[in-house]
Amino acid sequence: MAPKIAGYLRAHGSADPEDVTGEVFLQVVRALPSFSGGARDFRAWTFTIAHRRLVDDLRRRRRRPAGAAPPEVVERAAGAGGDVEADAHAQIEHAAVRAAIDELPPAQRAVVLLRIIGDLTVEEIARVLEKRPGAVKALQRRGLRRLKGAYPFDGRER
Which of 36, 121, 123, 147 is the most buried (most CB within 10 A)? Predict the structure, then answer.
């Protein structure tokens, strides 16, 4: 589950998604005695904690902007090597998808990422984001429509 949490945080632009993921699971361990429910409830509960930590992280960054290189630059430099053509295609693909997601309004981005990365239901997302299920459905529809317009899928392998 940690890679999904880190992916959710990374897609939202967390400055240090691995560090925030660590904070999320530290909070999960601390609050575990108060948790009750099944596996899906646990996943939704964990993403609720992740979303709250993300909001805290983004607020903290707005107050004190950092001058370090963006994590994507460090990741690219660390992952150099291998098949250059395949790596270039993958980077272009990744950049296009990332740009399309970054263009989504924050509420749409949160809903789409929680559905795709978190594999949460509409009802679970509504609890995480403290919204009505109808609002979540509308945000999902608009977000997916916007992504389709920015990054049309034509059914062919890329």
Answer: 147
Could you tell me the residue ranges of all domains in the chain?
2-150
Buried residues in 114-136 as b, exposed as e (16+ CB within 10 A): bbbbbebbbebbbbbbebeeeeb
Backbone φ and ψ of 55, nearest 5°: -60, -45
The whole-angstrom separation of Cα 24 and Cα 18 is 10
Q: Model pTM? A: 0.68
C-alpha to C-alpha distances, 63 to 37, 54, 102, 103, 149, nearest whole angstrom: 37, 14, 21, 23, 34
Tokens read off for 89: 């295609």
Q: Which CATH architecture has domain 2-150?
A: Orthogonal Bundle (1.10)
Contacts of 137 (CB under 8 A, 6+ apart): 122
- Could you give the residue ranges of the DSSP H alpha helices within the chain? 2-11, 17-31, 39-63, 71-78, 84-103, 106-116, 122-129, 133-150
State the Cα–Cα distance between residues 88 and 94, nearest whole angstrom.
Answer: 10
pLDDT band at 156 (very low <50, low <70, confident <90, very high): very low
